[in-house]
Amino acid sequence: MDKKPHFKAIIPNKSKNSEEKFKSFFNNASEIMLVVDAKGDILEVNDTAVKRYGYTREEFLKMKINELDAPDIPTGLRKNIKTTEEKGYSIFERVHFRKDGTKVPVEVSCSPIVYSGQKAVFAIVRDISERKKAERLVSEIKNRDEAILYSIGDAVFATDKDGKILLFNKMAEEMTGISSKIAIGSHYSQIIIFIKESDGKPSNDFILEAVKNNTITKMRNHSLLLRKDGSRIPVADSAAPIKNIEGDIIGCVVVFHDVTKERQIDKVKTEFVSLASHQLRNPLSTINWYSEMLLSEKIGKLTQIQREHVQEVYRASQRMVSLVDDLLTVSRLELGTLVLELKLVNIVEIVETCLKELNPEILKKKLVVKQKYDQGVFLIKADPKLLSIIFQNFLSNSVKYTQSGGNISLTIAKEKDRLQIEISDTGIGIPKNHQKEIFTKFFRADNAKKIYTDGTGLGLYIVKEIIDQTGGKIWFESQEGKGTSFYITFPLLGMVQK
Ligand code: ADP
């Protein structure tokens, strides 16, 4: 066979000029180029091939292209030549050997040509070592990350944007009782069921919220995981959106862990607080009773200084009584032992009684209190003690946190199908950075601590728990230095036991 280059045959336009152009393109190309016949015999190679493989042109022309392949990998030579003929091209990856024995991963792109009057294949061979290295690295990182996630002590699952599970680790398998084989590919809502401890209703919404609001969301307090066998485990943790490098949300990762022990410890602590508070009540009543008796001067006159001291004792014991009452309410709410005693009550009467108790303070601070009550919503079904706790807390806060001469307004109205209560003041307001924590147990904002040192940070926590547990809703608006408005709504009929 004539082994001289036959570029004339390769190019459709057989003019001398274009043949020269192709020859120069073939020889000067930075890519490796070869021409092989239908059997795989190498008919032509370019200078880059000679340089990269280390074979001379003459050596190449005595070889078959599959002699460049690593011997342990099946070549599929015939199939590749056939595909090239049938489809008009073929692209495949191989590992080639250089003359010095070193390996190089390559991508071969083939197109059919007519070379020297016979059917042949024109192949461009690209060194893909760097790409392979990068692919290996990515897969190593992926495998490592997956291995970490798989063996981590918390249950983890990840979903795509549509909620289809992509990853389900070992702990998730153990906790749910569902194997990753079944979980992966299913929608998470069919596999993972979180429910509220209080009413058994679903509490998966934090997952949707994480994706919708592009933020980390916490699982609702007191959530349970419903296992495959029907048993329930108390769980806690969070969901976070997964983003690609462009910042688009492409899925969600959910982490959760068993909090049975923490819940048990919490319960023991709460029971202890409950017991201690009960025990504190008796001695406190004694202190109260004796200081009241001394102040009444029935058993003898007090000097001015004695009176002041006894008054201090009396005030301190009053504060202690109210703290002990708060702690008892908290423990009842947390232990779930709060029993609602619902009856038809006049809400305005309750508000007015609470306001009357605060009257000395209101007068002292010269506060202006405005009330607006809509007719027809006065009678509701509620637990009067709990309703009093709610109003006492809101109103006493407004009185405490509003400077002398300020305003407090109280509105009770019907809003659509609900009863809405608004308590607003022109007081110190709640700083923006503290607003998220305002319903947290023992939390007090810095500006409040400055003007009123005695607070406990229990009031709003109690109020929120009561409202949540009785079918109500609560929210607020506040601006530091300007004032605060708290809003509560209940069904028109009143409280419901949840
Ligand atoms: P306490 O009043 O005993 O501190 P609460 O639980 O009733 O506890 O209130 C928690 C915190 O919420 C307060 O310390 C204060 O920072 C803030 N707060 C509540 N009500 C008001 C209000 N009307 N104006 C300004 N801050 C308020």
Spatial shape: elongated
Distance separating the two termini: 94 Å
Radius of gyration: 40 Å
Beta-strand content bin: 25-35%
Number of helical segments with 4 or more residues: 17
- Helicity level: 40-55%
Q: Gist?
A:
The protein has 498 residues and is of the alpha+beta class. Helix content is 41%, strand content 26%. Bound molecules: adenosine-5'-diphosphate.
Question: What is the strand and helix layout of this fold?
Answer:
Blueprint: H1 7-10, H2 16-28, E1 32-37, E2 42-45, H3 47-53, H4 57-60, H5 77-87, E3 90-97, E4 103-115, E5 118-127, H6 129-151, E6 155-160, E7 165-168, H7 170-176, H8 180-183, H9 188-191, E8 193-196, H10 205-212, E9 217-218, E10 223-226, E11 232-243, E12 249-258, H11 260-296, H12 304-335, E13 343-346, H13 347-357, H14 359-364, E14 368-373, E15 379-382, H15 384-400, E16 407-415, E17 418-425, H16 446-451, H17 459-469, E18 473-479, E19 483-491
Structural descriptors:
41% helix, 498 residues, alpha+beta, 5-stranded antiparallel beta sheet, binds adenosine-5'-diphosphate
Note down, in words, how this protein is organized.
With 498 residues, this protein is of the alpha+beta class. The chain contains 17 helices and 19 strands. It has helices at 7-10, 16-28, 47-53, 57-60, 77-87, 129-151, 170-176, 180-183, 188-191, 205-212, 260-296, 304-335, 347-357, 359-364, 384-400, 446-451, 459-469, and strands at residues 32-37, 42-45, 90-97, 103-115, 118-127, 155-160, 165-168, 193-196, 217-218, 223-226, 232-243, 249-258, 343-346, 368-373, 379-382, 407-415, 418-425, 473-479, 483-491. The strands form four sheets. Strands 6, 7, 8, 9, 10, 11 and 12 form a seven-stranded antiparallel β-sheet that branches. A five-stranded antiparallel β-sheet has the order 2-1-5-4-3, sandwiched between helices. Strands 14-16-17-19-18 form a five-stranded mixed β-sheet, with helices on one face. α12 runs parallel beside α17 (459-469). The chain is elongated. It starts with 6 loop residues before the first helix and ends in a 7-residue tail after the last strand. The model is unreliable at 1-9 (pLDDT under 50). The structure holds adenosine-5'-diphosphate. Residues 393, 397-398, 401, 425, 427-430, 438, 443-445, 448, 455-461, 484 line the site of adenosine-5'-diphosphate.
